[in-house]
Design goal:
CATH topology: Beta-galactosidase, Chain A, domain 5
Radius of gyration: 20 Å
Number of domains: 1
Structural class: mainly beta
Number of helices: 3
CATH architecture: Distorted Sandwich
Helix content: under 10%
Number of strands: 22
CATH class: Mainly Beta
Largest sheet: 9 strands, antiparallel
């Protein structure tokens, strides 16, 4: 029978020095406050650790397993307490939405990727429990978004790190608190660190029809000579991006929309397989997150790959996605939820997953 303990968290718990607040065998949880004001919560097991910002978007700021940093390289050495997306960018996972996601274009008034990435969570708690999968520590919380005459919803993410695991279990639920229907958009911005000669292996066909390159240029992106030609070439030959060779320069970025296929259990799978056989990994459920976005950015200042950003819409912003019919709705009092898995795979597990993906693509 599953058993779980919940420890409520408060900003006053977080001091300048890191302190362990819970220990259960090889699982530990510790808290502290960064110089920039953000509260940090570290979950650690026998193989690695993750740092979550429980009151700031419930971002997963960093993830490190078996001595390897999974998180993108950015210009930020630590998080900053801000609501501005680009003033605190470098996390392993950012929840994006819910009233909008993507890059605002003409006619849009929403911030880049919506209000969730740095949302000020009113409630947060630490979880410790055991179920049929084993022991775990977790973090969850609630962000209540209220805007008079407009939106009222509650978002509740939950992240679990299990004993002996290198994979994170990530859930999110969103409840409409209004008495009328609300629109919703969501994107999980999962940012790994690219590896030269890493291979992308995933359960989506890599053809121009099923791996579409974004041609629009966001306002915050500075275009360099040859950039548009690169996008044109990738649209005609998307398979070229499946191996991250050093000469393939994603500067400032490349964004793909992928049509994922799921296995018999409803999961789609994505890996960046390293030259040594290890892999970065994401699993999502297309029935819940029907759009697969890939983002690659390899510049002198930022090195990142979203091998898949599971989403409910493509990243063109509210107005463009509304015109495509991509925006979903929630009825009064209804709850929508999604599940994901993200982290690292050992060589043998990566090899087995590659065979599984091949089977999905073969039908």
């Amino acid at each position: 029978m599953a058993a779980e303990t919940r420890v409520n968290l408060y900003p006053a718990f977080f001091g300048e020095r890191e302190r362990i607040v819970l220990q259960d065998g090889g699982l530990t949880a510790s808290v502290w406050r960064y110089d920039g004001g953000s509260c940090g919560l570290k979950l650690k097991n026998e193989l690695g650790e993750v740092v979550v910002l429980p009151f700031q978007g419930q971002q997963v700021w960093s993830a490190n397993f078996e001595g390897r940093e999974l998180t993108m390289r950015s210009m930020f050495t630590e998080p900053r307490a801000t609501s501005e997306y680009l003033y605190n960018y470098g996390a392993f996972l950012l929840h994006c939405g819910i009233t909008a996601t993507g890059v605002p274009t003409a006619g849009d008034t929403h911030p880049l990727h919506g209000e969730l990435p740095n949302a000020p969570y009113q409630r947060a708690w630490l979880l410790a429990g055991e179920d049929d999968k084993g022991r775990y520590l977790g973090v969850s919380g609630e962000y209540e978004h209220v805007m008079a005459f407009n939106h009222h919803y509650v978002a509740r993410p939950c992240l679990k790190l299990r004993s002996g695991a290198t994979l994170l279990e990530i859930d999110l639920s969103v409840t409409n608190r209004k008495r009328t229907e609300m629109e919703r958009m969501y994107l999980a911005h999962i940012n790994f660190r690219p590896v030269d000669y890493g291979r992308l292996v995933y359960s989506a066909p890599c053809t121009p029809e099923h791996a579409r390159v974004r041609r629009s240029i966001p306002s915050h992106v500075q275009v360099k000579p040859g950039y548009r030609e690169l996008l044109d070439d990738l649209q005609q030959h998307p398979e070229k991006h499946n191996v991250l060779t050093p000469d393939l320069v994603f500067d400032p970025e490349a964004v793909f929309s992928l049509d994922y296929r799921a296995d018999a259990e409803g999961w789609a799978h994505t890996m960046q397989v390293h030259p040594d056989g290890r892999a970065d990994y994401v699993a999502h459920r297309p029935a819940e997150l029907d759009k697969g976005v890939r983002w690659i950015c390899r510049t002198p200042d930022q090195d990142a790959i979203g091998i898949v950003l599971p989403a409910t819409a493509e990243p063109e912003g509210y107005t463009a996605e509304k015109a495509k019919g991509s925006i979903k709705t929630l009825g009064p009092g209804e709850t929508w939820s999604c599940r994901m898995v993200a982290g690292a795979l050992a060589p043998e597990a990566a090899k087995q997953m590659a065979a599984h993906i091949a089977g999905i693509l073969a039908g």
